[in-house]
Amino acid sequence: MKLHLPGFVKRYLKKRDGLKKYQESMTAFLADSELTFDESEKLMEMQKEFGLSDDDVKAIHKTSVASVFTAMGSDKRITDDEKNALEKLLNHFSLTKSDIAFNQDNFNKYYTLALVDKGILPTIENAQAELNVVFKEDEVLHWAIAADMMKRKKVTTRVNYGGFTGSIKIMKGVRYRVGSIGVQSVSKEIMDKEDSGVFYITNQRVGYLGYRKQFSFPFKKIGSLELRSDGLHIFKDGKETPYILELRDYEVPLAMISLILNKAEEK
In terms of pTM, does the model score above 0.70? Predict the structure, then answer.
């Protein structure tokens, strides 16, 4: 006896198979982060063949383009070609950045690092409005990031110590305590936040602008830079102690400063 499935079951199974094949095709087509005209046509034909609506495939579009964006940033670099490819996919599928879990901070970082790798330093427009610093002639802002200025601070704690102690019974309810207890001071250094502000890099200098503290000096005055576990140590020529800054990210500013210093040495 042949079993006949109800129509709605057949439609459900057809749609399920269609979504699976559509997902597989999207994965294959976007392996190179691009969608050709022929590939786009095949997707449209597949929609018609399996009766898939735009709403049916939108979730696939979102997850597929999100995977492309994740793959682009896997090497912590996003090139101009990758940036343009991502924008084309977003426009083609009528998606927004929020649809693909787009992270603007990561994009800015990876895109900037790719530029620095090519010897290019990005310029932040409207720098005067972004940063309340008076710029010199022909000075442009390349990077600015939130920073905490740190300082070493000595703290002293009390520690009780002593030798053998005990008590001797003199009479009922009365005892005499023997032994000794002393107090010792122990000092140690800790890192303490001194100020909060912005660390910035221009084509002429590095600087910090905080609520209470600030500094800036040209690149030629940098004695050395050291990234340690407690922050970025900037040693200025003629200054015994370093400026210590704790940043949200160190990779971009260090890459920029390295590029600028290397270019200066080549001149």
Answer: yes
